[in-house]
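Supplementary Note 3. Input sequence used for the single-chain structure prediction.
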Amino acid sequence: MRKSTSPCDLRNLPWQYPHFPWKNPLSPFFLCFFVLLSSHSYIHQISLHFTASTKTTPSPTVSPSRLFSFQRVFINHAPDYSATVFFLSHENHFNVLTLNVVSSELVDMEVQDQNEHNQEKKMLPPTRGTFQSREELLKHVRDFALTQGYMVSIRDSAKDRYVTVACDRGGVYRKRLKNGENMRQRKNASRLTNCPFEVVGKKDDDVWTLTVKNGEHNHEPSNTSDHPSCRRFTEEEVLIIRDMSAAGKRPRQILKALRQRNPNLVSDSRNVYNVKAKIRRGSLSGEDIQEKKATNLTLLIKPPVSLEGKKAEVSCSSSTETMNTNGVAATVTQAQPMVHNSFAMSQAYVESKEVTETKALVAELCQHFYTLGWLAGTGGSITIRVHDGSIPRHHQLIVMSPSGVQMERMVAEGMYVLSSDGFIMSTPPLKLYPYQPPKCTDCAPLFMKVYEICNAGAVVHSHGLEACLVTMINPFSKEFRITHMEMIKGIQGHGYHDELVVPIIENTAHEGELTESLTEAMRAYPKTTAVLVRNHGVYIWGDSWISTKTQAECYHYLFDAAIKLHQLGLDWSSPNHGPLRNVNGLWGCAGNSSRGPKVGTFGLDYMIEPSQRCLLLTVEGTVTPMSFVTDILFPYAHDNVRKHLAMTYDTEETQHDIDLLRSQIQEDLEQGVAGAVPIPPDYVGKELVIASLAANVEAMINTDRKVTSLKQLEGRIWRTGFQSNELVAVVFEDVPEALEKWHASGIKVYIFACGSREVQQLLFANSNYGDLRKYLCGFFDTTVGNKQVAHSYFEILQTVGVDRPADMLFVTDRFQEAEAARAAGLEVIISIRPGNGPLPQNHGFRTIASLLEI
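The predicted structure, written as discrete structure tokens, is reproduced below.
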């Protein structure tokens, strides 16, 4: 603690600034600031609080470079005042400067260092005063508490009358479960100490007054930088997270944007993930926040006419007008001379540049798609969200094309504009005979479902002939499947070696009746961006109109290719597109036929049944020797993790990997996992961050952890090894021959491994027998779930499209994985290879020593 009682004491200090205007009431304050600045090389955050007479004025947090502006801001303060200045250094050390000025002379100054304060073990209550708003009062209390080593929370509040703030360690832990012999007991002691600290803010004559009810604490100061309250996002930050998430931004990108707005933010990616999860669950919808955004609210109201054509009355200055919406009259009557402000403003936005440009774009695409045969005979439709960065995606307006019009003559004025929840805000003008009254597309309910479930940016409903015919080739199929076609790469989330699966739903007499089956298909196939309607057409969507248009072109190309391959007698659904095989009387493999009688039994070889057309293989101990993984891959990742992080630290890919690792390590620390060490924040320097990350990764590798964050990073490291020819994958000699045999028989082979999909493809592309990927239909990693959990195999069955689990054969080397797969209903064989682990006696599974036995 350092204390001065006269201005002379200050002038005698080693740091003298004679150019300061000493008669200025703020001069002592500025001199004290330079004293602190000289003793602390880096000032990270400064917060000020002035009290003159009975008026209290807190100022916003500022950087040191802006401090000189406060000489002008507070120049009109009374000569008698007190000031409290909070300094936060880059090392998160707090210093508190308190000074009193009487008649422009400094009579008392006190500089308090947080370290000294902690030694005294005395935590002070916030200074009393008056504030202009409840938020200012709470900010003052929280900022001051942070400097003293405690945190506060709101205990009771009536928003417009009072607020009671208490220490976050107040209260006692309530054991909600009764003691019992088999009851789980709490492992850790509660943080609550029943601390009596309490301050109260009351509103009186539009001014909030802070009083201290009990300023004492019954616990020691604590490190507040790790407290959850410090990582809590403001309402505005939650809105930013929600909007950027809807725009497809990753948590690391969102966190970077938040730190640009608030350099003092201590939250990390894990906190962003938590907020995103709450938003998805609906527990943090932000609707209460939106009510504070009046400028956005005017765009989010519900206009009077709904898609169902219900009657509604709206006050307007125009004469009575009747509009036809979906064939049902909707009346707009004149009841009041004034229009509601929010409705008037929303109507103005409907005529804005963003909406006008989107309407023109829809008209242009209608004309283009007509030339492709997708919107012939007034059929088909297009819808696009109005992109506006100032409005959250799920509140943006929607433009839809009308129904029953000549698509090649479509113009911007002929479009419908809808709100985000499906209410019509703008209709096309009425035209004279022979034109029919305007009518919004019958696809509107289906479009709205796609927007709701898939958060799409645009949707196209095509009546293209190829989309119709491809569903007729096998009238019993529930899916369209195709693989090893270059245009598959144009579909979101797919590559050349992946199998594209598009669900097929049955047609109905009326378009709107498809809504339920379309909804079920989207939920059953969460990764799909298209749904075929048998004998009808296809619905295609994407994140934007560009993505939707690109995917629509690729889908139609693939449908057309499948039809032509079928005409040539070739199977489009197999990797080599070989001759069609007659399976249970049905040509091709696109359908899921019922399970037929067994044609073989478990003899010397396992015979695959006609309906059992899928194999699922693990890698370690089944395809590759266990020693290749343990003696080559793991040591390579262990030895190169630091080098990899140092070389790629600033890339987006590595930053994403680091975010995943931080989340996993934080979880490990909370669970007390051995080898887990804390990761320092980014501002301490990447060398320290890399060192701590490498220590955690090496510990994970040593214990063979099966976590996604580790496997993803290992995949990046191994990719470098394969690309530089430092690594060559070793597979058993029977693997190439078995894969080729199954491939020629039309059997689809998939891989399920702990390593990422990218690593799996690198391994099979760089094997000691050459590139084996041509024999494989798809790859699965732990993003579908743990290999020892039955639900993971349900996810694979759903993705592959196998109706009966027993139609898939799973080959693994691990008993726990075999148990999980059998629990999911799969047929299971255990691979016995040199170096594999022992199996329990009487395990009950068939075993093989070579894949050629299948």
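The radius of gyration is 34 Å. Residues 485 and 496 are 6 Å apart (CA to CA).
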